[in-house]
Write a structure and sequence with these properties.
190 residues; alpha+beta; four-stranded antiparallel beta sheet; 9 helices; 8 strands; 23% strand; globular; RmlC-like_jellyroll; Crp/Fnr family transcriptional regulator; cNMP-bd_dom_sf; cNMP-bd_dom
């Protein structure tokens, strides 16, 4: 069993070693090179992905033809396109590695079988979804109520790892800024 994933799961639910082995058996490991796609627009998302090492971006191409980053995924995070996954429709999103990345994929059939065998797995994913939803709400609240500089400073204070691992132009996209605006903010004294 992947130790990182086992620690992650045990933060949210009580689970035995044998149940963890069952969970682990449902996963497929995959390695991605930097800039390699895990999902491209037009394809159907078939799995939830746990990132054991690396960094991914989830984005779409906006009407101006620019990448608009919706979400990042770092070590010990889950990432997927839930709309495509749940409805089995072509994705409008891309999931791409920012750096060499290792993931564990949990496909739909394995997830459903796992939930039948271990009902507590549904609880795990409910907790993950609730936490993700709260984070998304807070992001929207901050985007609508803080100035650009306040938004950047708040985000970096809460997520210092991002400043070290995410290229600034990608961070600008995620925060809804131009790279030039972010450069001006960063040039100011704290």
């Amino acid at each position: 069993m992947n130790t990182q994933l086992s620690h992650y799961i045990r933060r949210y639910i009580t689970i035995s070693d044998s149940e963890l082995e069952l969970f682990n058996a449902a996963l497929s490991p995959k390695k991605l090179a930097a800039k390699e796609y895990l999902l491209q627009a037009g394809r159907i998302c078939t799995s939830r992905y746990f990132i054991t090492k690396g960094c991914l971006q989830l984005y779409y191409i906006n009407t101006k033809g620019n990448n608009q980053i919706v979400h990042f995924g770092l070590d010990n995070w889950w990432i997927t396109d839930y709309e495509s996954l749940i409805h089995q429709i072509p994705s409008k999103l891309y999931i791409q590695a920012i750096e060499p990345t290792e993931i564990l994929a949990l496909n739909i059939a394995s997830f459903e079988k796992l939930c039948q065998q271990l009902p507590k797995i549904e609880r795990l994913f409910r907790i993950i979804m609730e936490r993700s939803y709260v984070a998304a709400q807070r992001r929207l609240e901050f985007m609508f109520s803080l100035s650009g500089e306040e938004l950047y400073r708040t985000f970096i204070a809460a997520n210092p790892t991002f400043a070290q691992r995410i290229p600034q132009y990608m961070l600008a996209s995620y925060l809804g800024f131009t790279p030039e605006f972010l450069s001006k903010i960063r040039a100011k004294k704290k």
